[in-house]
Specification:
Elements lengths: L3 E3 L15 H9 L4 E3 L8 E3 L14 E3 L15 E3 L1 E6 L5 H17 L17 E2 L5 H8 L12 E8 L10 E6 L52 H7 L2 H15 L24 E3 L2 H5 L3 H25 L2 H7 L4 H30 L5 H24 L4 H21 L7 H7 L3 H17 L20 H25 L16 H4 L10
Parallel strand pairs: 6-7, 6-8
Antiparallel strand pairs: 1-10, 2-3, 4-5, 8-9
């Protein structure tokens, strides 16, 4: 159960990533391509000039050549290459300022790189490399989703830059988005189904969990192979063209704002990328080893209390005790709250004892946070049991169904990896209280492995790609308590039992339910 110590890493010059410049892109677009037989023993093995190892580690999303289509050594390979466009567009057709930015940016590219001009004839294709005829973000979406996208007359877009104004009249405030193909790969030989994501998600902050750049963006096993930097976030942005186009936009902004005239400039290939150094850290410690079993032990420990709650409430209805109390003018709300308060008080002290006992196991965690976690886990479990009890009038049947549903929550928790799954899916599964506290226990264990435990500084900290933290588990336990509680309140009044008269399904919308004294009695 000992943890693995990961030694600190200090990047060297060999770890430096040097992306292609836009001038390099233009050069690759101009280059002549021929089929080359590189293996005399295999007359059908071809590569295309300029693309070594069949395009492995090829960082240009605008030129993609398929060596599988070659038939003879020395044959022109231009017809086997796909040339994609760079699209510049405003966010909407009504955004005049953004449209002016598009025009100025396109003019800058044509001036600095004259080969990209429409009439230069420098490229081995007849359509424009820079296209500005797509006038909105919506039109761009419609274009790339056309059924004939990529066919003759409908060239593909390698990268798109979408400009938008900031709401004012200034044309020197630059708001733009660089859009790349999230499943892009530059070597047709690597085409696989289904396509895997090859671009890091832009809606996620990696600083919350990433130890180093080479482990934060690992590609799925079923996706294409990009090159030696394919598991690097920076490398993926390089392969998909985002870094080079970002640099191109920045160069234009320096030109457009007059910074170049004042002597400010950056050399064409001067920008390089390297990961930050990392400290020594531990991973896969004791708590990581017991992570699958800790939720199981808690689940087993709660089976009997859950069955007692369900059976006690249902037996009250089965033995007609509830109807007897209603005949004595005791309301359904009073009956429900009396049960809840009874169980809440019992589990309040149980939560204190559980937090005190678990403090010995989670020695780095704060007692207060452990108590909050356990108390909310118990409350969510109580409201779950109330919902099951509200649906049945027979104690035995209700207990069996309740325990089966409780077990389903555990199955959901162990079948999902909360460290990598989508956070929205994890939260949805956490609507079951067993899943919510199971994920929370694993998150607390992770913090213990780091030697910090759960406290006010780590309550919202996540070390995983999903971003799921202890705070998310606590939040979902609160949601569970409210949702299951409201559901129990509603079902207790509309589910038809063996005795008594249920309220109509729409009773929450009736005035007489909320304000019974305002309804005047009428003589019959």
């Amino acid at each position: 159960f000992s943890a693995t110590v990961v030694e600190p890493k200090f990047p060297s010059s060999s770890d430096t990533i040097i992306p292609f410049s836009f001038q390099d892109y233009v050069t690759t677009l101009q280059a002549q391509r021929i089929c080359i037989n590189t293996d005399p023993k295999d007359l059908d093995y071809f590569e295309i000039s300029g693309l070594r190892d069949k395009g492995y580690n090829w960082p240009v999303p605008f030129v993609k050549c398929d060596s599988r289509r070659c038939k003879a050594d020395g044959e022109s390979a231009l017809v086997y290459c796909e040339y994609n466009q760079l699209s510049l567009s405003p966010s909407s057709s009504d955004d005049i300022i953004a449209g002016e930015m598009v025009d100025r940016f396109a003019q800058y590219i044509h001036t600095r790189y004259p080969q990209t001009s429409d009439d230069s004839g420098a490229f081995p294709f007849t359509y424009d490399f820079i296209r500005t005829d797509i006038k909105s973000n919506t039109a761009l979406d419609d274009y790339v989703t056309r059924k004939d996208y990529g066919e003759s007359g409908v060239p593909k877009i390698g990268v798109a830059v979408v400009f938008s104004s900031t709401g004012g009249e200034s044309t020197k405030r630059y708001n733009y988005a660089i859009r790349v193909n999230s499943t892009n790969f530059n070597t047709p030989e690597e085409e696989l189904e289904p396509a895997g994501a090859t671009t890091p998600p832009t809606d996620q902050q990696f600083k919350s969990y990433a130890k180093n750049d080479n482990e934060a963006c690992q590609l799925p096993d079923y996706g294409p192979s990009l090159g030696p930097y394919e598991n690097s976030c920076t490398g993926q942005y390089m392969y998909n063209g985002a870094i080079t186009i970002q640099r191109l936009v920045n160069d234009w902004i320096m030109h457009d704002t007059g910074a170049n005239e004042k002597g400010y400039s950056v050399a064409e290939n001067a920008v390089r990328f390297v990961s930050f150094p990392t400290r020594q850290y531990k991973k896969d410690g004791f708590y990581a080893q017991i992570a699958p079993f800790a939720p199981l032990l808690v689940f087993l420990g709660l089976i009997f209390p859950v069955s007692v709650i369900i059976r006690s409430i249902t037996q009250e209805k089965e033995l007609r005790q509830q109807e007897l109390m209603k005949m004595m003018s005791i309301s359904q709300s009073a009956i429900g709250w009396s049960w809840f308060i009874s169980f809440f008080l019992f589990y309040f002290f149980s939560a204190i004892c559980t937090a005190a006992a678990s403090s010995g196991l989670y020695s780095n965690s704060t007692f207060g946070f452990l108590f909050i976690f356990w108390e909310l886990s118990f409350v969510a479990t109580i409201t779950y049991a109330f919902v099951i009890a509200a649906c049945f009038s027979k104690a035995t049947r209700a207990t069996l169904v309740g325990l089966l549903g409780f077990f389903i929550g555990f199955i959901l928790a162990v079948s999902l990896d909360y460290t990598t799954m989508d956070k929205g899916l994890i939260n949805f599964v956490s609507l079951h209280p067993v899943a919510a506290f199971s994920f929370g226990l694993q998150a607390i264990g992770d913090l213990e492995d780091f030697g910090v435990g759960v406290n006010k500084n780590t309550f919202r900290y996540s070390d995983h790609p999903s971003g799921y933290a202890v705070s998310d588990s606590v939040k979902m336990l609160v949601v569970d308590s409210i949702v299951w509680g409201i559901l129990a309140w509603y079902l207790n009044r509309v589910v038809r039992g063996d005795y008594g008269q249920p309220l109509p399904l729409y009773f929450p919308f009736q005035v007489k339910y909320w304000c019974p004294r305002r309804i005047k009695s009428r003589p019959v």
